[in-house]
Structures are given as structure tokens and as C-alpha cells.
Amino acid sequence: MTARRCFIAGNWKMNKTVTESLALARELRGLVSMVRHVDIAVAPTFPALHPVAKALEDSNVQVAAQTCHAEASGAFTGETAAPMLKDAGASWVILGHSERRQFFQETDAGVNRKIGAVLKAGLLPIVCVGETLAEREANRTLEVVSTQVKGCLDGFKADVGARFVIAYEPVWAIGTGKTATSRQAQEVHAHIRSLLTGLWGAEAAAQVRLQYGGSVKPDNAAELLAQPDIDGALVGGASLKASDFAAIIKAKAQA
Ligand code: 13P
Q1: How far is Cα 245 from Cα 243, in angstroms, rounded to an integer?
Q2: Could you tell me the mean pLDDT of each successive run of 10 residues in the chain, 255 residues long?
Q3: Catalytic residues, which ones?
Q4: Crossing angle, helix 46-55 and helix 18-32, to 10 degrees?
Q5: Residue whose CA is closest, atom 5 of ligand 1?
Q6: Which CATH class name applies to 6-254?
Q7: Ligand 1 within 6 A of 237 CB?
Q8: pTM, whole model, 2 decimals?
Q9: 20 to 30 A from 222, CA-CA: which of 2, 7, 35, 243?
């Protein structure tokens, strides 16, 4: 079985001016420069992406975008295309975040098209899935997550799929301070891994990194990251403070 490298990404969402983003990136760069066994990325807003990528050049912190358009260029006012993100210094694109699904009508089929665009541009996707509170209470968590994973990944083969990252973010745990217990998170992660085994075979499924997201903080990160199928975290609020985000990254050492 492949050892999966831990991958911790910070989703800054619609926070921080360019100036503030640069300050945060520089502070983080200093705090994590000695980290060797964890992959790290931050996802600034579009205006800050290129300056942040420049500020993180030759560091161990990569840059992600928070979304992109499925077309490479054209008359889509307000949108940003994957090749532009690549050129601006991104390595990853977060797709299908629950806030995109909730406020911007993003669907599994739309995410599926965007994954194609991301790969074509030489980037890699972080594909987000997760159930709402109503769906969890109706015992529909695994069914909802299965539909999302299958819909988003439809048509992609094991050779590229093994490099994808999937983030399980229960909607009820995002920004609420309510974290899934490590047992709840591990259960869904194991389920996603078994779905991937069905889609791509055991060898590819064992390479896919599964991040947990939803109120990850310095004090709960180690326990979550110690679970066998939790290979990293997608961090919102706590990634806006360099010391907290660095503490989450360093928590892996104790996991
Ligand atoms: P919080 O860490 O603020 O709950 O956000 C999680 C998230 O949505 C990351 O994409």
C-alpha cells in the first residue's frame, strides 16, 4: 500500500485584502519552513492569488484557487479560467465547495466539467463533498456523499484520479465550531475510499488523499489526522491566522 503524504490546505474564502494576504502568506512561510513531511497549500482570493504565489515562490507552501470556470476563455463576465490560474501560480483548484453549491448553484455535473478544465490546464482538483445536517439526521450521509463522489468523478480514469484530492466537509461542521468526531469523519472517509476502490481499483484508491474539513482547529487536528483514512485537512477559519494554521500542520507530527 502506498503511504499517503499528509496534505493540509487553507481555504481563505472571501477574506483578506491583497496586502493582508501577503502578510499572512509571509508569516506562514516563516512558520512552516522546517516542515518536511506535510504538503501545504493556501487558497487566497483571486486578486491575491498571483502576489501570494510570488511571495511563496521556492517555499514549501503551494497555492490553490477557490474555484474556476469550465471553459478556457471566452465571454463569461466575472469568471476566471483554469489556464489563467496556472499562469498566476496556482497548483490546485478547490471545486464543489459547499458554499459554491449553496450560493452559486454548483452541481456535481458542473464540478465534473471543471475537473476536466483543471486537468487540461495542468492543475489538480481538490473536490469537496459533504452532507447537510438534515441529510445526516435522515441517515442519508453515505448516500449523499456517494452521489457527489460518483457525479463529480464520472469519466475520469484511475491514472489521473489517483492524483486527485477529495475533501469531505460535512456542511453542518463548516464555520459552526461543530467538528465531526474523528469516528464520524473516519467512517465517511472509509466509505469514500471504498467507492474509489469500486471506481478505480484498490491500488489507485489507496493513493487518493482524503482531507477532512469543518471546524478543524489546532486542538482537534491531531486526533482527526490520526485516523487511517484522513490524509489531511481543508481548513477555513483557522487558516486565517498563521500561528493557528501552522499549529494544525505541526499537529500531524503528533498524530
Ligand atoms: P471552517 O474550518 O471555517 O469550518 O471551514 C471549513 C471549510 O469550509 C474549508 O473549505
Answers
A1: 6
A2: 87 98 98 96 98 98 98 98 98 98 97 98 98 95 98 97 96 89 97 98 97 96 97 98 98 74
A3: 97, 169
A4: 40
A5: 236
A6: alpha beta
A7: yes
A8: 0.97
A9: 2
